[in-house]
Amino acid sequence: MKVSIEVNGKKEEHDVEDRTLLVFFLRETLGLTGTNIGCDTTNCGACTVIMNGESVKSCTVLAAQADGQKVLTIEGLGTSQDDMHPMQEAFRQNHALQCGYCTPGMVMAAVSLVHDNPNITEAEVREGLEGNLCRCTGYHNIVKAVLAAAGSGGGDL
Amino acid sequence: MIPAAFDYVRVDSVDAAVAALTEHGDDAKLLAGGHSLLPLMKLRLAFPSVLIDIGRIEGLSYVRQEGDQVAIGALTRHCDVNASPELARHAPLLAYVAGKVGDPQVRHRGTIGGSIAHADPASDLPAAVLALGGEMVVTGPSGQRVIPATEFFTGFLETAMSPEEMLTEIRVPTATAGHSYQKFVRRAQDWAMVGVAVARYDGTTGVSLVNMGPTPLRAAAVESALASGASAADAAEVADQDSEPTGDANASPEFRRHLAKVLTRRALEEAGL
Prior knowledge:
Distance between the termini of chain B: 47 Å
Number of domains of chain A: 2
Strand order of the largest sheet of chain A: 2-1-5-3-4
Number of domains of chain B: 3
CATH class of the largest domain in chain B: Alpha Beta
Order of helices and strands of chain A: EEHEEHEHHHHH
Largest sheet of chain A: 5 strands, mixed
Number of strands of chain B: 14
Oligomer: heterodimer
Strand content of chain A: 5-15%
CATH architecture of the largest domain in chain B: 2-Layer Sandwich
Structural class of chain B: alpha+beta
Strand order of the largest sheet of chain B: 4-5-10-6-7
Distance between the termini of chain A: 29 Å
CATH architecture of the largest domain in chain A: Roll
Helix content of chain B: 25-40%
Shape of chain A: globular
CATH superfamily of the largest domain in chain A: Beta-grasp domain
Strand content of chain B: 25-35%
CATH topology of the largest domain in chain A: Ubiquitin-like (UB roll)
CATH class of the largest domain in chain A: Alpha Beta
Number of strands of chain A: 5
Number of helices of chain A: 7
Structural class of chain A: alpha+beta
Number of helices of chain B: 12
Radius of gyration of chain A: 15 Å
């Protein structure tokens, strides 16, 4: 089927198999490999992107369901040190990553959380990131980063 | 993981969905948020040949108070059920439980109708609607019918709906006299190993159990013990009566029975009993 999805502000029209998952559309059709596949079972959150302003797990959304919608990936936030989103910058400043595998999903989930709740508390951050697993950091610096970004544009879309 | 191939059909009305179900019969499945169905399809535990996407049908996402009931459109997402001021006021158990489903990403996609029609005994919302004594409005080729929650869940992932029917609305009574939902998990965001929902309304107390058998279960023995004046602690002792918990990597049947009793006592106490 033909889908037309606005990805990072750019309209992308492609013919895909009906069963194509959004994460494969992003990674393989568009070559946007910043979005990772982790568990592939809706648990780990590594594939989190923002669709119509809300975080979703792109391994559990069909490209067909995203047809006509707006999708934002980590590449849409920033791809170099000079154009980092405040949430990316806060992750860097607070050493909120080690191996980095969970980071794109973690950042997208965090942006969505802070977008919905700019005055977010530490407890709300911890609860709100329950759908994103990090096996390196113990979460402490991730929570610090999200709280730091919350006051400085971390929820901007 | 990639689902087996299927034909994707998008419909824009309930009538069109029912017509598509009638045309394709057992080979078709309805797709709303997809957060129960797509994982099963990726694991190849389900392989419908036609997916009918009802996610864009307009007018099926709402929460409305109607007399002494609250009506919830089947396509209302968990995040919207959780944030509904009407539900917070009139049926707070349902709003609270919706906020305990999965994680924020899941709640942005999953719908109450999808969760209930999927009828997973480990799911949160089916048990909540059962504890509330709710009812399901289903629409088929010959119109609408209403199925009480107590008759809706007929087996593991099976409901009283026929293959050409679609769940369109969930109704629960206003229940503001106390509520609780106790969900036991080893890790945040997990499915409940055991859960207990309690809702108090009209002078009665509804109690239901998550993951204590092939369907969500009404804890009838607890309810009748309470009706005869038993204390919360005493009533909780019969929580596992008539349940059939299975054993798996998370818990043995015996541990589940123990959890049901402990969680029922906590739930009844939190609900003010």
